[in-house]
Design brief:
Layout lengths: L5 H10 L4 E5 L2 E4 H17 L7 E5 L4 H12 L3 E5 L5 H8 L6 E3 L16 E3 L1 H7 L16 E6 L9 E5 H15 L6 E4 L6 H13 L2 E4 L6 H10 L4 E4 L1 H9 L12 E5 L4 H10 L4 E8 L3 E6 L13 E2 L5 E4 L12 E5 L7 E2 L3 H7 E2 L2 E10 L5 E6 L3 E4 L2 E4 H8 L5 E11 L3 E10 L7 H11 L8 E4 L13 H6 L9
Parallel strand pairs: 1-10, 3-4, 3-5, 5-6, 9-10, 9-11, 11-12, 12-13, 25-26
Antiparallel strand pairs: 1-2, 7-8, 8-18, 13-14, 14-15, 16-17, 17-20, 19-20, 20-21, 22-23, 24-25
Helix pairs in contact: 1-2, 2-3, 6-7
Amino acid sequence: MTNLLAPTLCQHARAAPAARALIVGEVVLSYGELADRVLRIAGWLRARGLAPGGLVAIDAVNGVEMVEVLLAAVAAGGVAFPVDRTATATELEAALAGEPVAAVSVADDEPPPWAAVVDAPMRLGPGDLDGARRAPRAADLVERAPLDPAMILLTSGTTSAPKAAVLSHRELRGNGRRTAHTFGLSAKDVGAVIHPLSNILNLSSLLAQLEVGAAVVLTRGLTSPPHLLDALARHGVTGFSCVPSAVELLARGGLPGRTPPALRYVRVGGPFSAAQLERTSTLLPGVALFRSYGMTESGLVSMLLPSDPPAARDSVGRPYPEAHTRILDESGGRCGPRVEGAITVDGCHPMLGYLRDPEATARVLRPDGIHTGDRGFIDEVGYLHFKGRSKELIKVSGESVWAHEIEAALRLHPAVDDVAVIGAPNNRLGEAPWAFVVVAPAATLASAEILRHARYHLPPRKVPVGVVFLTELPRTRTSKVRTGELQAALPPDHERC
């Protein structure tokens, strides 16, 4: 029998009922209390008609309530669908594609806009949840097979509408276990989740902590880095996972000299250069830094470890053996060492597909594995080097230029607070890079200075032909840059530059 985390949660509740499970502000929930609430809410959902495989859309506001409903929906045999508050009604309608929703759970009396378009027979508000916590406990857990759906997550949608990726019990459990093993987690750890749980990076972190009986501190974003650092220190947080932009924000917001004393590891998920890794290491003395590579569709693929040699710092680590990672050329043949091609993952924990979208599923899930849409190579000793998304490749006079390599160089300028690079049509070069720059507070920066800096650090073909200054970069709910909005912000005459 498989039911994601519920059996393990009950085991922890029996073995150490008073151990801390969830911490939100000053609210602390023990494993005994969490298991009891999950089983009662699961019983409440089943008594009101939630059938195996029924979809439960959840307002993904980090909090005790969100985790309770997430785990209860799966324990009851349903499929949990955590949806970020920033998702629009249009995005959700497109992702659901007519799929019926059995229940909607909202965090407070002001539901997110997307909740208005979901026609569900069951709705759980704060008052309903109070009653559900007092309902009779579910007598047993609904049996689900390893490949039955457990959760649905929206993909990022940086250039198009997000898709709903359907994840199995096996995929989510495998992600959690690999994460726990890599970080050496135990019941003594205290992990923090600082991003919404509608993202695979954060969801796998939560599942990894609960898998081993550790405590989880839930926070609601990075609006105040000093307050977040104080909270991490106050609760004795030993580790957390985050996106690269969060590391940069923490570094600017007071990280130097304020490292939480119990912190022993930080995992960065996403493009993070060797220079950024080195700079972050100086800000976090004694803290182990990990860099992971993966996606919602494939799960966790590889991890760069602190023990890996300096020569591997430009890689995303060795792929996990079970990921069966290969680099394929245009004809589908396997590339040799250091030959760039398409990153393909034929592992044991892929997504089941995109909800009600067989055509999009067929483009990604192919007989030879998951075609990630990413480009890279594997070196002679097995390290995977991520070069970029296929759609981020810029062809300058026929030569390949990767946007993230330019971004890494521009970030070395002390006045650059944030930066993104995209390719744009160019009458002279065919395609050319443009830089979108956010200037650091209290700093001044001109286009000429940025371009001088770029020419010092980059070969000519990688130097942007133009710079656009923004007050902030448009980002998705998972902090990825919305490149379509950057395209719209290009100057009218950009093709002639």
